[in-house]
Structure formats: structure tokens, C-alpha cells
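Team,

Forwarding the record for the chain on the shared tracking sheet. I've put the sequence and predicted structure together so nobody has to dig through attachments.
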Amino acid sequence: MADSANNVEGASVTRLTQPGHTDGGSSPAQDVAPVIELIDLHKTYRVGTELVHALRGTSLAIRENEYVAIMGASGSGKSTMLNILGCLDVPTDGIYRLRGQDVSRLSQTKLAGIRGRQIGFIFQSFELLGRTTALKNVELPLRYTRARHRRQRAIEALERVSLLDRAHHRPNQLSGGQKQRVAIARALAQKPAIILADEPTGNLDSTTGEEIMDILDGLHADGQTIIIVTHEDHIARRCRRTIRLKDGRIVLDTGDGARSGAGAAAERVDEVASKP
């Protein structure tokens, strides 16, 4: 096993090219089409005989290489928004465009394909396969999408998070911070349009959490679009934009990607009217 690990460490590594990368990590021009666009989004759940309105007419735009924190108390709608952004759920009404494609009404099969190609997930609980090495955990999603050069891409991703020397370790041989590095590498290996991180430091001590945020900061500097759901103010301050939800509505947006209610509603009317 040691020889195998040495072979990985000695492999020729080419730095990953991140989507939206620009020289010096500069932000793209504001007239570039958004990576994410939500228009008058609603999500309603039925609980017994009652309707729960998780999202109430949410509209926003997120462009390439933005670094966004989504915040809110329990029940604010942030988990529902994360699920919709990650194509794990669809809205009850409204429009969600991902890289210009309306994904609001796609089938679960098509949504799964989009998740595999365009979205990288980082979870609070890591979600690693316990009997599988770090390298194979990173490589696994690439197998589902039948990506080419899977092993090389997994090696590159582990190298990016400084964990190549643990490539052949299983999760029970890794610290919490190392497990989260594997999870970040797994998300990176897909070369996604966006990375969605759900409380990425929630299971880590403060020092390790800062190290994980340093990695995410570096990915953003390399051009990656990152959205973090967090309840911690110090994590949100590391991001360049904060969106706060309350009762299913955006009550704070420190960026310029918020869409006015009137403008979003007008586009929603035009969209519906143009459909056969």
C-alpha cells in the first residue's frame, strides 16, 4: 500500500482549471449572464392539513466567481433554497435558471445529470464512504458521470487541498479536517459551475474550520463560484456577499445581484406568456 501511495504522490499533477477563472482572480464583468438566476421563486409543502410556505417570491442572481453566504434562522428557508439551488428539489412556482437553462420543471433523472456535471457539494457531515480510500471517494462521482481521466482528476483535486499524501487512507484514518478536505476535493474533481457548501465547518474545531475556509478562499481566488449556507457570522464575513432569509423572503442582500420585486415579477409574466 505504501508503494501505491508513493506512486500517487509522484504522479504528474496538472493544476485544475476552475470555471470562470480570470488572471489574478478578478471578478467577471457585471454584464455577464448570471450562473444562477431565481425569479419569483415559491416553495410550498403540505404538512398534514396545513401549507408551509418555505420560500415566498424569492428573486436573485449570482454571477461567476461570486462568494456568497446564505444565512437565516431555523425555518427561514435557507435549507429549502440550498436544495433547489443544488437541483435536489424543484420550486412549486417561479423560475430557476442554471447557466441560462431553466431547470425548474426538469425530471429527477435530468436533475441528477445536472448535479453530476455542474454542482459540487460539500456537507457538514462529510458524507464519505467509510470502507473506501480518500482517492476513491473523490473519484466515485466521476464514475457516475462517466468522466474521462477520472484517476488523474481525483489526484489533481487531492493535491489542490494538500491531501495527496493521504490518498490511500480510509475515513477512519483521517481527522475531521482531513475528511472535509476529501469532501472539497470530491466537489472540485467534477470541475463544477458552482460549489454548494452546507455548514462546511460545523463539525470542526475553530482552528480546523479556519483552515477549511482558507481553502475555500483560495478556490474563490482561482475563479470558483461558491455558495455557503451558514449560521455563523464569522464564516459569512469571509464571503464577499451575504444573503439573509427570514420567513421565506430575502431581508438582506449585500451584493448587487438582488432583483427588484417589480422587475422579477415582470420577467416572470413575460416568461409565462411566451410559453406555448
